[in-house]
Amino acid sequence: MSRFIMRLTTCLMAFSALLGCAPAQPGPPFDGKRAFELLSKQVGLGPRYPGSPGHSEAQRFILNQLKLYADGTRTDEFTSRIGGKTLEMANVVGWFNPDARKWVLLAAHWDTRPTADCEVTAEKRAKPIPGANDGASGVAVLLELARVFHERRPQVGVLMVFFDGEDYGPGESAMYLGAKHFASDIKTSAAVADRPVKIDYGILLDMVGDKNLGIYRERHSVDAAPDVVEKVWSAAKSLGCADKFRPEVRYTIEDDHVPLIRAGVRCIDVIDFDYGPWHTLDDTPDKCSPESLKAVGEVVARVVYDER
What we know:
Elements: H1 2-19, H2 32-44, H3 53-67, E1 72-82, E2 85-96, E3 103-109, H4 122-125, H5 132-151, E4 157-163, H6 177-184, H7 186-189, E5 191-192, E6 195-196, E7 199-206, E8 215-218, H8 219-224, H9 226-238, E9 245-251, H10 257-262, E10 267-271, H11 290-306
Parallel strand pairs: 3-4, 3-7, 7-10, 8-9
Antiparallel strand pairs: 1-2, 2-4, 5-6
Helix pairs in contact: 2-5, 2-11, 5-11, 9-11
């Protein structure tokens, strides 16, 4: 009988590995299909760069989804003057366990790039990208995690921030705008119910929905928060996702985590920078998968639920 049970357990673990990460989560299951639906709904709103109709629709969509599950929400509005234009932007913020002493920041950007600058032809380069992976994937994972955390509270506080203006561009001086705004007054930005909280560390998700997911350790992250990188990659290994979270450091990436690091927040970037359709018109939902979203969501959930 014991041999049968061992074989049955092995088969169940192998089957669950096909669906996402192998062992069961300590909290409610992360629904990869639901996350993929959230990704697709964002893309269905159209391009979501500041000033576009889809931008205001996406902000409402994220806020309304977050209100279903978070203990509290707000929007932090700001403006940026770029190329002679004054752009209205907003970070969307939600939190869980407002009375917690220890806090983890989870972040993603929700805007999309107004130009497909990695396209070959000039005509295509002038068009905005759909932003399925580059924008919608990180948001989808966080919104599904919001449902998970609502069903079973972590033992730490969780501050979710959806950054605006990450991808406006074209140059980097006109990028990471929401993160720069957040970092410019970290005490006010990180306040929960008018009470400043100290963030222990942060995890940024960017381009995490690729069908062929391969996430490498990022250099700024390793330098700023090696222990946080180890938490995430150890969780991935324990969940059977080591094939998606590669152990090597491959890239040094400027992203929303850098302004946070400079403001004193130990933040890491979880990003698949080898995504082929990056900044092109081919960044569409068919290049993403529920399985990849589920893998990333389960890893982040494991990290948060393991905190005390």
